[in-house]
Write a structure and sequence with these properties.
Elements lengths: L4 H14 L14 E6 L3 E6 L12 E10 L3 E10 L2 E9 L12 E6 L10 E5 L2 H12 L4
Antiparallel strand pairs: 1-2, 2-5, 3-4, 3-6, 4-5, 6-7
Length: 144
């Protein structure tokens, strides 16, 4: 089983945040899942091992990736790293609502540190997965 569009999108953002070399992005298309379990309000996707994308040195849970799904559901993502390699992606929503059966729109956003004036902390980068993936592939052409 391959990653779905949401898993690819949040994984690319996670790799970008970690400044993992862009050539690793092509590997995303090849990643196989061991399992994808829905919890009712989110999911757990366990990747088949071994992976070739090293994301750290330790075993940790990390994540600063958030997305708005279908223009209304605010979601967050946790990336479980074991022995330096990505093991599991966990998706959850902040409202406790049922996870959508279909996802038609994904808007990635970052929670910025609180501003001294108390202004909004959410910085949205709204882009569809198809457009994001197409732009990334275009930018990488000729590099490898």
């Amino acid at each position: 089983m391959k990653l779905n569009e949401l898993e690819k999108t949040v994984l690319i953002q996670y790799m970008e945040d970690l400044r993992i070399p862009l050539e690793s992005v092509d590997i995303i298309e090849e990643i196989e899942l061991e399992s994808r379990d829905f919890t009712g309000v989110g999911f757990l996707s366990t990747l088949k091992q071994p992976l070739t994308i090293k994301v750290g040195e330790a075993t940790t849970g990390d994540g600063d990736v958030n997305a708005i799904l279908n223009s209304s559901m605010h979601t967050g993502y946790l990336f479980i790293v074991r022995d330096g390699y990505l093991d599991t992606i966990e998706g959850y929503n902040y409202e406790g609502e049922p996870w959508p059966k279909e996802i038609s729109n994904i808007e990635i956003y970052k929670i910025e540190p609180e501003q001294p004036d108390g202004s909004d902390q959410k910085k949205t980068r709204g882009i569809s997965f198809q457009r994001f993936w197409g732009e990334l592939r275009s930018a990488l052409r000729g590099w490898f």
